[in-house]
Amino acid sequence: TTIEEDKLLNLIIQRAVEKTEADFGSIRLLLRNNRELETRAYYPKDTVRKILIPTSIEEGITGWVAKNGKPQIVVDIREDPRYMRDAENMRSDLCVPLLDKEERLIGVLNVESTKVSAFDKRDLLFLQQIADLAVIAIKNLWKQEQLSKAEIMATLGDITSPLVHKTNNNVVDIREFAQENCEPADDNIKS
Length: 191
Hints:
With 191 residues, this protein is α+β, with helices and mostly antiparallel strands. 47% of the residues lie in helices and 19% in strands. It has helices spanning 5-20, 60-68, 121-181, 187-190, and strands at residues 24-30, 36-43, 55-56, 72-74, 92-99, 105-113. The chain has a six-stranded antiparallel β-sheet with strand order 3-2-1-6-5-4, with helices on both faces. It starts with a helix and ends with a helix. The model has no long low-confidence stretch (mean pLDDT 82).
């Protein structure tokens, strides 16, 4: 359906957290520089965490998943040196890349739990399916935005074209009038 990106991403992450029985989740999209991930949606909404600011794909478990394009189940994040310690109560992590059909990275879908060993292969398969559907929805949204921009540009062209045409005609009329009425010897007036 046609829905704003924020609403779509928030709905996706909320469902992912609920279905995996996680305590926190986020969707982080790759910025245009292809070196940073920006958190675009997270759940629950009252969360305040360091990962809510853009981070390098060289940092954390989500950065590793983004860089390598492979999912990760971390049984106990306190034992994983990659984990960015910004939530003391989190213990398990499940993270999957958002890859388009050409295997290009769009972002990362991540859920976390306060329980050790909270996620299993079934959760991983589910999250990968959610990620695949999320990629389709995100790409459709982006295509729709591009189409809307193209339609706006076409409309602007339709509106401005007669104005430009009329202006060009007036400039031609002025030039012809000046050439007919200026004395041939007066170069300053001609120019």
